[in-house]
């Protein structure tokens, strides 16, 4: 009887040991992932001098690796050494410090994001203070112009989705341009609020390196600087939004501007960026819009909008993309007063002469 119990115990010990090892391997992966995140957080946000930062990162990585190795090397029934517990304590301290880093609207901002949009509304009459209308010659040579403009929401008649590609086909900056029957246009764009001398970093966008700002701008500023000055590839698509719904989307941008003006927020490459706000506002008029990988890979967002019926009907997506490439027309128009009209020549939905 004792011998049978011994064999049964041995048979059970094998599966238990395997499960314990798999669990500890999973925990080791979590530890190493947290170790990588912590190292990047310290690299981007540690407030002290570089030598102290580098020493702290090295110490943190060593502790994480020691904890991960300790989890992998032990077997079932063998107690863990102190490294995982030490790493857990260090992680709690790191997260506590991370939560103390708050966004601010009071920094030495770069010139093109120096001012926050200030919207005012009285019925259908909207006044936008701090509309950007810079005259760009190069990225560093420009004439700053901040203007106050007025719009009549009863004349709001169209919206265009603009994608500007600067880092391959999967990544694009997303903007929305609203058109009014009196000929006025205004573009809204969620952007990083760079400090003086700061450059954009997609990785930094995960680690509280940038605040977010909502820029309202003239097309000859915000579109032309991308196509004509930075050499980006810019596509424009007419959005298929009923006029009655346009106002909700427009007012959604104004609400976001007010929120950012009174409560500074972090820009996040994944969760709070130029594309996610468009999706959030689109859900105001179509709550059932599905989540999709193209919301993260923003370069494919126009294709997602097409699949949801959000672009001009009657054309294939390839036709819309081919005719929506505005770069050649933007270069030809340059700083002409009719820049907005000329870049839309041949664009389905924007140019009435273009038929399916």
TrEMBL record:
Give the top-rank taxon of the lineage listed in the UniProt record for this protein. Answer: Bacteria
Q: Which InterPro entries match?
A: Lnb_N (IPR025178)
Keyword Transmembrane helix in the entry? The reply is yes
Q: Which Pfam families does this entry report, sorted A to Z?
A: Lnb_N (PF13387)
Which key words are in the record?
Membrane, Transmembrane, Transmembrane helix
Which residue numbers delimit the Lnb N-terminal periplasmic domain?
Answer: 143-299
According to the record, the segments passing through the membrane are 16-43, 55-76, 82-98
Record's protein name:
Lnb N-terminal periplasmic domain-containing protein
Organism in which the protein naturally occurs: Pandoraea morbifera
């Amino acid at each position: 009887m004792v011998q049978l119990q011994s064999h049964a115990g041995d048979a059970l010990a094998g599966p238990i040991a395997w499960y314990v090892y798999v669990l500890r391997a999973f925990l080791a992966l979590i530890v190493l992932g947290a170790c990588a995140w912590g190292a990047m957080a310290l690299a981007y946000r540690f407030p002290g001098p570089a030598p102290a930062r580098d020493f702290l990162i090295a110490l943190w990585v060593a502790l994480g690796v020691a904890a991960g190795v300790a989890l992998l090397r032990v077997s079932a029934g063998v107690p863990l050494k102190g490294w995982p517990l030490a790493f857990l304590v260090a992680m709690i301290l790191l997260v506590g410090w991370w939560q103390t880093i708050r966004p601010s609207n009071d920094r030495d901002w770069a010139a093109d994001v120096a001012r926050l949009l200030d919207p005012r509304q009285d019925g259908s009459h909207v006044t936008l203070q701090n509309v950007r209308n810079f005259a760009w010659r190069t990225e560093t040579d420009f004439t700053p112009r901040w203007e106050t403009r007025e719009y009549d929401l009863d004349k709001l008649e169209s919206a265009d989705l603009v994608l500007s590609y600067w880092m391959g086909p999967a990544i694009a900056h997303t903007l929305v341009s609203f058109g009014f029957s009196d000929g006025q246009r205004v573009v809204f764009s969620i952007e990083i609020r760079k400090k003086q001398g700061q450059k954009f970093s997609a990785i930094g966008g995960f680690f509280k390196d940038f605040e977010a700002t909502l820029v309202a701008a003239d097309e000859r500023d915000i579109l032309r600087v991308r196509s004509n000055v930075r050499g980006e590839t810019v596509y424009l698509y007419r959005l298929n939004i009923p006029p009655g719904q346009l106002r909700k989307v427009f007012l959604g941008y104004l609400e976001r501007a007010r929120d950012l003006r009174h409560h500074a927020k972090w820009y996040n490459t994944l969760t709070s960026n130029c594309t996610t706000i468009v999706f959030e506002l689109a859900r105001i008029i179509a709550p059932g819009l599905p989540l999709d990988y193209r919301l993260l890979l923003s370069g494919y967002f126009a294709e997602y909008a097409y699949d949801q019926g959000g672009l001009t009907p009657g054309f294939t997506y390839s036709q819309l993309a081919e005719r929506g490439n505005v770069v050649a027309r933007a270069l030809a128009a340059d700083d002409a007063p009719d820049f907005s009209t000329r870049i839309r020549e041949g664009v389905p939905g924007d140019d009435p002469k273009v038929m399916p």
